[in-house]
Design a protein that fits this description.
The protein is of the alpha/beta class. It has helices at 20-24, 31-38, 51-65, 90-98, 115-129, 152-155, 219-240, 258-268, 279-282, 289-299; strands at residues 3-12, 16-19, 42-45, 75-79, 106-109, 134-142, 160-170, 176-184, 192-193, 216-217, 250-253, 308-315, 319-326. Strands 1-7-6-4-5 form a 5-stranded mixed β-sheet, with helices on both faces. The structure holds coenzyme A.
């Protein structure tokens, strides 16, 4: 039976660094509050970079690391909720930028902070079914464009960035994606959402309804849901592959809050060295967070052949996902 495996990774973040001290200059907040509640010290925000610019940087690195050229790619899937335009998709823009062959399908997947793992799961299904062999999977978000920079409860949490992998067909059953699980519960959408441009209805201008287009979140409720759901998603991936938490070489979780990550690690009995945390430098980059962290551990030499990597995400929708990979 055909399996899929990651053969290249890449990442790209905007140049501009926005520190907690920078935020103190225009918000009623403090480095102390943000650091102790979230673990974030700074984040990147896009000034000149678009979603396709960041995607292109990450994708080029991943294709190069895989030893391929854009000609080899036969499917592009981008996880994002902050595309440059409503349409075309970021994936179509990326196809043009990279020079990937015309007629190769390219589409976006919308699952907020779970966008990358939803895209990876879709790519895996294409490969396993025989419909694709080399898939470019990107997670990218530019939340600096959809948060309200006057709302200290949300804007301090997010940052911008992109990560990418090339997922390839493999016939070695013992390697690559061992288990991939995606889930949603639409009844919980009110915990975390961003109405965007659709909040405004020109035919109902005086309806009095809330037309705040920005990210809105019930922080405490989201925190509790995240810990419970992420821990369960990790166990689901491990059980499906017949493995235990002690078998995990590195947990690469969505970077939403350092306290969420350490609470999950504690529940699973993981040590600090088994967990990847880079939220201090990037904040929550939504769909970008897992592939950026993956690229960091791969390029940093932290991943060896045969290692077990566990990816887990949680985000608006609500959506959550987990993927277990043998490297
Ligand atoms: N700076 C200073 N004070 C702030 C602040 C900021 N940036 N943001 C909120 N506050 C204030 C609030 O106004 C509130 O004040 P009040 O008690 O006077 O009303 C107080 O801080 C809330 O503090 P606390 O209850 O200790 O916050 P918390 O421990 O729940 O932490 C979050 C808040 C947002 C960091 C936390 O709830 C969280 O991370 N939730 C999950 C978010 C998440 O993961 N989202 C993405 C999922 S993909």
């Amino acid at each position: 039976m055909t399996h899929s495996k990651i053969i290249g990774t890449g990442a790209s973040v905007p140049e501009k660094v926005l520190t907690n001290s920078d935020l103190e200059e225009f918000l009623d907040t403090s480095d102390e509050w943000i650091s102790t509640r979230t673990g974030i010290k700074e984040r990147r925000v896009s000034v000149n970079e678009s979603a396709v610019d960041l995607s292109e940087g990450a994708a080029n690195e991943a294709i190069k690391a895989a030893g391929l050229t854009p000609d080899d790619i036969d499917l592009i899937i981008v996880g994002t909720v902050t595309p440059d335009m409503s349409f075309p998709s970021t994936a179509c823009f990326l196809q043009e930028r990279l020079g990937v062959r015309p007629s190769v399908p390219a589409f976006d997947v919308s699952a907020a902070c779970s966008g990358f793992l939803f895209a990876l799961d879709t790519a895996d299904k294409y490969i396993v079914s025989g419909a694709a062999e080399k898939v470019l999977v990107v997670g990218v978000d530019i939340f600096s464009r959809i948060v309200d920079w006057k709302d200290r409860a949300t804007c301090v949490l997010f940052g911008d960035g992109a990560g990418a992998v090339v997922l390839s067909k493999s016939s070695d059953k013992g390697e690559g994606l061992l288990s991939s699980n995606i889930h949603s519960d639409g009844s919980l959408w009110r915990s975390l959402f961003a109405p965007g441009a659709t909040a405004y209805n020109p035919f109902k201008p005086d309806s009095g309804e809330d037309t705040n287009p920005y990210v809105q979140m019930h922080g405490g409720e989201t925190f509790k849901l995240a810990v419970k759901t992420i821990a369960a998603a990790c166990n689901e991936a491990l059980m499906a592959a017949g493995l235990k938490s002690e078998d995990v070489s590195i947990l690469i979780p969505h970077q939403a809050n350092e306290r969420i990550i350490t609470a999950v690690a504690k529940r699973l009995g993981l040590t600090d060295s088994q967990v990847c945390i880079n939220i201090d430098r990037y904040g929550n980059t939504s769909a970008g967070s897992i592939p950026i962290a993956l690229d960091e551990v791969v390029r940093g030499g932290r991943v060896k052949s045969g290692d077990i990597l566990l990816f887990v995400s949680f985000g608006g929708g609500l959506t959550w996902a987990s993927t277990l990979v043998k490297w």
